[in-house]
Amino acid sequence: MTTTGGSILSTASETELGLxxxxxxxxxxxxxSNSHVTGEKYSTCYVxxxxxxxxxGVVVWANTDLDxxxxxxxxxxxxxxxxxxxxxxxxxxxxxxxxxxxxYEFRRTVTSGIISAINRSVKIEENDxxxxxxxxxxxxxxxxxxxxxxxxxxxKGKVIGINSVKITSAEGIGFAVPINVVKPVIENxxxxxxxxxxxxxxxxxxxxxxQYINKTFTSGIYIEQIIxxxxxxxxxxxxxxxxxxxxxxxxxxxxxxxxxxxTKKPGDTxxxxxxSGRAEKEISIILDKKY
Length: 291
Fold this sequence. Notes:
This protein has four helices and 20 strands. By secondary structure, the chain is mainly β. The strands form four sheets. A six-stranded antiparallel β-barrel has the order 1-2-3-6-5-4. Strands 7-8-9-12-11-10 form a six-stranded antiparallel β-barrel.
């Protein structure tokens, strides 16, 4: 399985190179990693595979909130890794983390542990900004900085998450982004060689973040902000409303909402069911393109 990963060196800065890990998800050179490793969309990075061949890659998709990215290199007939189902994982399940911890000299290191918890949220304060990474898989498998972007694998050898965040103030706690949220994006690139991302125009939180924002709700998705002139603006949605369903599909985490929107295209219509105080309402939104 070590042949499915390559190290990705970010060239977002001329003076600083970042070392991380990636997962080959298609034989023609699409590689899944962290956005903080590769850089944002349209960034250039370098990918070194196991046989030590180095390729120039272009980031074709990135989401900084998820800390995920997809990079394309010009290569064919690459070995790929199988993607698992992160919706079926269980606390106590054995997992393995693969990556390049600390530096290139420790490349292709495998560590093992268990799933310690699911649906964890982490508050990250960086460059005077605060973001919340939600619905994370928590594991005690050893994860160091160079593991970023590498796979968290189950006992069947399938990827259930992408290693992302490590809490440096605690020992034995690492986090991975569930693989299911990015599956629709990967499938679009594999099938169509492109992905046109749809946008709903809302900033939202789920109940796992309630403690951080001093709100009390136990289910659904809390609407923190409606983006001005976005597709949801002026549709009767209020800040503080709770999304309970999208197209009759119950929804309780931000990643569930993202995953569903990733299956749509700009111009598609979705129907939200919301609670506003004690009242319920249904609102249709025409998605636009996310730039």
